[in-house]
Amino acid sequence: MNKKRKECKRNPSFFVKEKEAFAHPVGNDIIDWETAKIQEQKLRPRALKKLFNPLEIELIQHYKSPVLAYWQLWSAKEAAYKAWQREAGVKPVFNPIAFRCQKRSESYFNVIKEDFECEVEIKTTSNYIYAVLVSERGRLVSKVFKSTSKYQNFISQLKDKGWFIEKNENGIPYFRDKTCNTKLPVSLTHDQDWYAIQLSAYAYDLLFK
User: Fold this and answer.
1) Of residues 138 and 179, more confidently modeled
2) Are 46 and 205 in contact (CB under 8 A)?
């Protein structure tokens, strides 16, 4: 048994944090606003009906910026879908209209699919729209990267610590440390030059301990 594996075995808190990391659903989605805001064709009635239910379409059409509302709803559905897919353990089958958004406030939605429900926060800036899951059971950590190089530098730092991104047979991503036989759930997203990750605070502590 190598030194690092011995350290894992001697540190019970390591395995407690690993277990806790899986107790907190993660899901995120980032939209490049500079590109998205000019896509007015997305607001055509026929296109809207394929993605949104009547209440959501009404929200979009009566919002101060319909195209902004479109992408806020889209990103909320996408973030919720990632959490649902991980929980359900199924292959990628994103059907946006199956995820119903209920607006709670300017920045928060409840997203529901059958017996699955989650809360999503929408962070809107002049550069991007960023949807992230909100967890009642603990703190979640998000990091946004402004360029491919900054994201790749972050991933390289983790590789130096022994952590690698892997995906399972359903395309769901994890950080894995092969030495300690450990994996941690992470949600990944990117659009144009924007990249972002979301993971639990427990997972973050293990990555950067």
Assistant:
1) 179
2) no
CATH of the domain at 103: 3.90.470.20
Point out which residues pair with 184 in neighbouring strands: 175
What is the total count of domains within the chain? 1
- Give the DSSP per-residue string, 148-185: HHHHHHHHHHHHHTT-EEEE-TT--EEEEETTTTEEEE
- What predicted TM-score, i.e. pTM, was given to this entire model? 0.90
| 29 in Cβ contact with 82 (< 8 Å) | yes
Q: How many CA atoms lie within 13 A of 142 on its CB side?
A: 22
Which amino acid is residue 179, in one-letter code? T
Domain containing 164 equals: 3-207
Tell me whether strands 140-145 and 116-124 are parallel, antiparallel or unpaired. unpaired
Provide the token pair at 110.
């409840």
